[in-house]
Amino acid sequence: MKWVPFLEKEFISSIAKCNNSSTPGLDKLSWRHLKSIVKDKSCLKRIINIADVCFELDHWPSHLKTSTSIIISKPNKKLYNSPKSFRPIVLLHILGKLIEKVIGNQLQFHSISNNFIHLSQLGGLKQRLMSDVGVTLTYFIQLGWVKNNMTSTLAFNITQFFPSLNYCLLLLILRKASFDSKVECFFSNYLVERKA
């Protein structure tokens, strides 16, 4: 993937899908605030300029690497005396979250269009919904029955995947997926010195 400057439509598309009622970020801004800000084209151009400069300099600002975890109570629980009644959420700066969404969309588009992601990978990808998992699983079970085989499944939840990610391995994967060296250089800075 050759790195190219970001486009307005990428940012507008990414922010349009964000929930206005989600918890504000570390900067106390919510998606509703940012949606209002990007309506002003000059503000949107400045945000895009920030993203472009981050990639050009292979640098992700340290204040965007900072996160805070807070614990919130789950709604409609009779008792709040067990840890299962609460869930942790991570707060980041809203501007950083927007830029990360746009970068993530570009990475996903490039990976899928170059057949780097296996066709059986479902969920978390555009046009590959988790509901497709049910159809696929049913197909494999019935295929096994036809062949008089027993079918079993293994399901797992990749909770806290990002903090345990081997960053050196990710950089190798980016290289193998034919991403521009600029993308690799950016991520070598993006991934380090994160603070929680």
Description:
- By secondary structure, the chain is mainly alpha-helical.
- The chain has one domain.
- It is built from 7 helices and 2 strands, in the order αααββαααα.
- The chain has a two-stranded antiparallel sheet with strand order 1-2.
- It is globular and about 65 Å long.
- The model has no long low-confidence stretch (mean pLDDT 84).
Summarize the structure.
With 196 residues, the protein is mainly alpha-helical. The chain is built from seven helices and two strands; from the N terminus they run αααββαααα.
Describe the SSE topology.
Blueprint lengths: L7 H9 L14 H8 L2 H16 L11 E6 L12 E6 L2 H20 L17 H16 L20 H10 L4 H10 L6
Antiparallel strand pairs: 1-2
Q: Give the biggest sheet.
A: 2 strands, antiparallel
Any low-confidence stretches, pLDDT <50, length ≥5? none
The value of Rg in angstroms is 20 Å
Please provide the count of β strands: 2
Cα shape = globular
Please give the alpha-carbon distance between the first and last residues. 31 Å
Strand order of the largest sheet: 1-2
- Counting DSSP H or I runs of 4 or more residues, the number of helices is 7
% residues in beta strands: 5-15%
Count of structural domains:
1
Q: What are the main properties of this structure?
A:
196 residues, 7 helices, two-stranded antiparallel ribbon, globular, mainly alpha
